[in-house]
Amino acid sequence: MRNTGLLRRIAAMLYDTLLVTALLFLATIPFIAIRGGEPVEVGDNLLYRTVLALVVYVFFVGFWSRSGRTLGMQSWRLQLETADGETPSIATASLRFFAAIVSFLPLGLGFLWQLWDRDSLAWHDRISRTRIVHYPRRETQKQR
């Protein structure tokens, strides 16, 4: 068990991006229905923007605090843990979520930071005192 590298994280993020995009499409359907099939104007619709933000927040914080992994992380055998090896609480997962936004804002520097960090941790890992660990596939028994 070791902290995961950047490429595995990116792969899991790409997978989760597809899932979140699908959820955002589903969350948009009622707004389009209310408008009689017309497109939703994002810029002037605070309720719509709030719903979209909540969908993303609930996706990540919900998965992280329930099982320590999103579906994308599960596919790449990644697990989010606290420094004690426990599943993060809702408060810790929320802190990580908002810290990840801060890590992404300066052109992703907070994510890239793990390339230079002695423990391979990104800014949001350090801020939330969490880490993403890679659990390699167990060796299968040789067939007779």
Which secondary structure elements does this structure contain, and how are they paired or packed?
Layout: E1 2-3, H1 6-34, H2 46-66, H3 71-75, E2 78-82, H4 90-104, H5 109-112, H6 123-128, E3 130-134
Helix pairs in contact: 1-2, 2-4
What do you see in this structure?
- The protein has 144 residues and is mainly alpha-helical.
- The chain has one domain (2-134).
- It is built from six helices and three strands.
- A three-stranded antiparallel sheet has the order 1-3-2.
Radius of gyration: 18 Å
Q: Kindly state the mean pLDDT as a whole number?
A: 91
- Largest β sheet strand count, sense and barrel closure: 3 strands, antiparallel
What is the helix/strand order?
EHHHEHHHE
**What's the tally of helices?**
6
Structural class: mainly alpha
Distance between the termini: 29 Å
Overall outline: elongated
Number of domains: 1
Estimated helix fraction: 55-70%
Using brief descriptors, characterize the structure shown.
144 residues; mainly alpha; three-stranded antiparallel β-sheet; 3 strands
Question: Can you summarize this structure?
Answer:
The protein has one domain. 21% of the residues are buried. The chain has helices spanning 6-34, 46-66, 71-75, 90-104, 109-112, 123-128, and strands spanning 2-3, 78-82, 130-134.
